[in-house]
Amino acid sequence: xxxxxxxxxxxxxxxxxxxxxxxxxxxxxxxxxxxxxxxxxxxxxxxxxxxxxxxxxxxxxxxxxxxxxxxxxxxxxxxxxxxxxxxxxxxxxxxxxxxxxxxxxxxxxxxxxxxxxxxxxxxxxxxxxxxxxxxxxxxxxxxxxxxxxxxxxxxxxxxxxxxxxxxxxxxxxxxxxxxxxxxxxxxxxxxxxxxxxxxxxxxxxxxxxxxxxxxxxxxxxxxxxxxxxxxxxxxxxxxxxxxxxxxxxxxxxxxxxxxxxxxxxxxxxxxxxxxxxxxxxxxxxxxxxxxxxxxxxxxxxxxxxxxxxxxxxxxxxxxxxxxxxxxxxxxxxxxxxxxxxxxxxxxxxxxxxxxxxxxxxxxxxxxxxxxxxxxxxxxxxxxxxxxxxxxxxxxxxxxxxxxxxxxxxxxxxxxxxxxxxxxxxxxxxxxxxxxxxxxxxxxxxxxxxxxxxxxxxxxxxxxxxxxxxxxxxxxxxxxxxxxxxxxxxxxxxxxxxxxxxxxxxxxxxxxxxxxxxxxxxxxxxxxxxxxxxxxxxxxxxxxxxxxxxxxxxxxxxxxxxxxxxxxxxxxxxxxxxxxxxxxxxxxxxxxxxxxxxxxxxxxxxxxxxxxxxxxxxxxxxxxxxxxxxxxxxxxxxxxxxxxxxxxxxxxxxxxxxxxxxxxxxxxxxxxxxxxxxxxxxxxxxxxxxxxxxxxxxxxxxxxxxxxxxxxxxx
Length: 714
Known about the structure:
Blueprint: H1 2-21, H2 32-35, E1 52-55, E2 58-62, E3 66-70, E4 77-82, E5 105-109, E6 113-118, E7 123-129, E8 134-138, E9 145-149, E10 152-156, E11 162-164, E12 173-175, E13 190-192, E14 198-205, E15 211-212, E16 215-216, E17 223-224, E18 227-228, E19 238-245, E20 250-253, E21 262-269, E22 275-282, E23 287-294, E24 300-308, E25 320-322, E26 325-333, E27 340-345, E28 350-353, E29 361-368, E30 373-378, E31 387-392, E32 398-400, E33 407-412, E34 418-425, E35 428-436, E36 442-447, H3 451-454, E37 461-468, E38 475-482, E39 492-497, H4 517-524, E40 528-532, H5 542-546, H6 554-569, E41 573-583, H7 585-596, E42 603-607, H8 618-625, H9 632-638, E43 650-656, H10 665-677, E44 682-686, H11 697-712
Parallel strand pairs: 39-40, 39-41, 41-42, 42-43, 43-44
Antiparallel strand pairs: 1-2, 2-3, 3-4, 5-6, 6-7, 8-9, 9-10, 10-11, 12-14, 13-14, 14-19, 15-18, 16-17, 19-20, 21-22, 22-23, 23-24, 25-26, 26-27, 27-28, 29-30, 30-31, 31-32, 33-34, 34-35, 35-36, 37-38, 38-40
């Protein structure tokens, strides 16, 4: 009996020792196929979702095979149609739209036909061919579509009659597409009026712009496929704005004067469709004007607003007229230091400033016309949050429309009386609520479980904190990702992930503090990953963003080194094994940090890096750096070509071989500078890929990045 008890005790002790030695054996480990957006298992590990849209004020769901009514109280789905009802060639209802409240019509598009399907009568009530459309914009009132085909601008009316509007379109004369390289908030090139009987469009002449010689290496005899690429200080393209009236199919151009070295953006129509408004910006981007033009004649009517700066003015939003007052509109500006809403009248007179304070209005969704309020998202609650509010236009009184936490986005109903609130919090992967914008009351629709924990994966530790900026003025937010089995008595290799540039941020109060999946992968492999939003990043106000003016990378490095100082103070960070990684602007920052602080960073991986700002494009580059002629000292200071001799650690540079954003010339010139200096970076290129690796190549990319740190940092 005693011998048997002894054996049992030894067995129990052995099992306990095993559980101590291998605490995570019961949990699954991630692969990049699980974590990376190009991975084979990525979608099965995304948080549960509910795809919703509006049919008037009725809530509609969109699934792969069907769409219909969604009961917010019970969660019941009532199918109204299945895509199989339309016959062969229809495979998804995910793009279903309901343009006509009260009418049983759903708009669908399968790439070949655009149809209005009547689910009550179970038939297609209207159809339109769309097989050869690019940049298409369909109008629900006239049912006409304006689009580009073979470089020319076309329009097809509701009867299916197609008309070619231009004849000189080419790769050099571009119609109906986004211009100015998608800067200034420009995402499209066709703009319908409120009646659907006329539209404005961009015409871009880039015949004078230098070609960048991209090459197609997949042809047996490599082919020349150049990109138009205006570099800082060089000749830029010229843009004009045209207007087409459907009744006559005539085209009139705005008489805005010589378009040389000027930018036209944020096109808006007046409620009566008689006036087109747009912001005009000089090439230095420090003088911005809101101008109105006659929509019939193209003649200039009035200049309503002007804003200047000793640095830059960046118009990103068109004016928006109040639905109940056709004489007043909302204009967005950060002239008081933060992006806020201002009400002006059509005479150009300021009526009042609608929002105030040291926070940013991040988005204007629309209006509750009955309550005469505007629905917005701001970061008033916290610099790393995004919350929803309804603001009374007459009084400025503000009503909270969410729980006051996390990062929220909204889909507003046509009347503005309801919104779909989609949000996440650090420990909430996804939640969806239906909210009444008049009283703020909401109804729960979905809270997704954590798919990582639900499926038994080992999840790292995600932490949030703040550090003071190098100038002592601001709290900078950081995220730290630690291994799941983190032991504070051990020393860990640590990687600083960095972006650092304008119009982006890396830390927010969403799920896992906005952590990238690669950080989880690296934490699983025994690294600590540290991410800090430095001065120059977005959503912190004008002065925070413009601290980097004419000296890109310099203040950002100072802030990042504050983060490094903090890391060095931690007993569990191995200061002899610090790495850095970033892409695009983050690639620029990676090489900047490695060459300016060569004894700090042992290993770096720089993806798609800017090397010299004189090789970058006009609009973005000149906004922040001026021209190489006007800011010679700044361009010399920020160029990494002169830093090549200072490279000490292991650096891998990775690019898309056909990158049209940060052209390969950047990396190639740096490699040449290193060969002349005797320093030894490593290099890898993805033939045929652009600025980011698409599809499954992204998995390959992140495995390559990972392996470099495994080889040289661990």
